[in-house]
From TrEMBL:
Subcellular location: Cell membrane
Keyword Membrane in annotation: yes
Family in the record: Belongs to the drug/metabolite transporter (DMT) superfamily. Small multidrug resistance (SMR) (TC 2.A.7.1) family. Gdx/SugE subfamily.
Transmembrane segment boundaries: 33-50, 57-78, 84-104
Originating organism: Hansschlegelia zhihuaiae
PANTHER family reported for this sequence: GUANIDINIUM EXPORTER, SMR FAMILY PROTON-DEPENDENT DRUG EFFLUX TRANSPORTER SUGE
SUPFAM superfamilies: Multidrug resistance efflux transporter EmrE
Descriptive protein name: Guanidinium exporter
UniProt membrane topology term: Multi-pass membrane protein
GO BP term (any one): xenobiotic detoxification by transmembrane export across the plasma membrane
Molecular function per GO: transmembrane transporter activity
Main location, first listed in the record: membrane
């Protein structure tokens, strides 16, 4: 169940990052409220995951999945560039996440 909590926390983390962009510096009400809800959801589910998972595994995975999701959705939804350097960096992050997952058992 902890891994499901962690995956949910990561989804909230991606939504939080997008919400910050859409809020335009917290000047738009609904995106700002969305951002607040998603940050609480992300930290809440991460906290539930940490009841079982080691912080040395869960927190880096949470941030990495959040980063990868933000890069992908920044490209898909916001029209941000997806350069070769970004792709190589994303692959490196995925390798690190896989290593952390394997090390956790």
């Amino acid at each position: 169940m902890a891994w499901i909590y962690l995956a949910t926390a990561a989804a909230f983390e991606v939504a939080f990052a997008l919400g910050m962009k859409w809020s335009d510096g917290f000047t738009r009400l609904w995106p700002t409220l969305f951002t607040m809800v998603t940050v609480v959801g992300g930290i809440g589910f991460l906290t539930l995951a940490l009841k079982t998972l080691p912080v040395s595994v869960a927190y880096p995975i949470w941030t990495a999945v959040g980063t990868l999701g933000t890069v992908a959705l920044g490209f898909a939804l916001l029209g941000e560039s997806l350069t070769a350097a970004k792709v190589v960096s994303a692959v490196a992050i995925m390798a690190g996440v896989a290593g952390l997952k394997v090390s956790a058992g």
